[in-house]
Write a structure and sequence with these properties.
Its EC number is 4.3.2.10. This protein is of the alpha/beta class. The protein has 10 helices and 12 strands.
């Protein structure tokens, strides 16, 4: 049985780590380089770094910041934001990223998933999907959740897998920042319908929420931000808690 992964997420805006609620009302959460190093030294299995305003501001991910973070960590490191070509990914991997996350660019040009998978391998390609449940249907949103689409979460996730994505990072916009728990019903459906790993994102508020998303949501990994950034949950304590619940985690 594969171990479950705990992944802190660093949402970056103007060079700082930020965190909001339902993708809004962002507040400062610290220096991303310092946070990355802290997490790498204190039990995180992986890191995700998302330049959340890169697409909206029509610019590339902050490659120099990626390089500085990569120099401080010794765990797998995923980078996303403003990625739209093979060349973009080449730069980020040279700066030290292990994987890349694409979102809006994949919806706008799905062939990008095929191109990246063919060039770098599916293990390098994470497709992030931000979705909001509206009238009992999950709709995909773009540009940091600002632009709704007609795409259904589950239909898009299946296409993403077919095109060569190695993982899906699903963020529930309804749950994001609420600390009310992950969207476990949607996660369980994704897990049942797909064969690639699913990373749960949006809603972590306490340790039981992580246990629930692994058991009920069948997630392969759980991503969180504020509960880690603001020292509400220590990753070592979380892993002890999960281990006591019979959930296999990396020690």
């Amino acid at each position: 049985m594969l171990t479950k992964r705990i992944i802190p997420c660093l949402d970056i805006k103007n060079g700082r780590t930020v965190k909001g609620v339902n993708f809004l009302d962002l507040r400062d959460a610290g220096d991303p380089v310092d946070l990355a190093q802290f997490y790498a030294e204190n039990g995180a299995d992986e890191l995700v770094f998302l330049d959340i305003s890169a697409t909206e501001e029509k610019r590339k991910t902050l490659a120099d910041l990626v390089l500085r973070i990569a120099e401080k960590v010794n765990i797998p490191f995923t980078v996303g934001g403003g990625i739209s070509s093979v060349e973009d990914v080449d730069v980020l991997l040279q700066c030290g990223a292990d994987k890349v996350s694409i979102n809006s660019s994949a919806v706008k040009r799905p062939a990008l998933i095929n191109e990246l998978s063919a060039k770098f391998g599916s293990q390098c390609v994470v497709v992030a999907i931000d979705a909001r449940q509206i009238d009992n249907e999950w709709k995909v949103h773009l540009v940091g959740g600002k632009i709704p689409t007609k795409l259904n979460l589950f239909d898009w996730a299946k296409e993403v897998e077919t095109r060569g994505a190695g993982e899906i990072l699903f963020t529930s916009m309804n749950n994001d920042g609420t600390k009310s728990g992950f969207a476990n019903e949607a996660l369980a459906q994704l897990s049942e319908e797909l064969n690639i790993p699913i990373i749960a994102s949006g809603g972590a508020g306490n340790m039981q929420h992580f246990a629930d998303t692994f058991k009920l949501g069948k997630a392969d990994a759980a991503l969180a931000a504020s509960v880690f950034h603001f020292k509400e949950i220590a990753i070592s304590n979380l892993k002890d808690f999960l281990n006591n619940k019979g959930i296999l985690v990396r020690r």
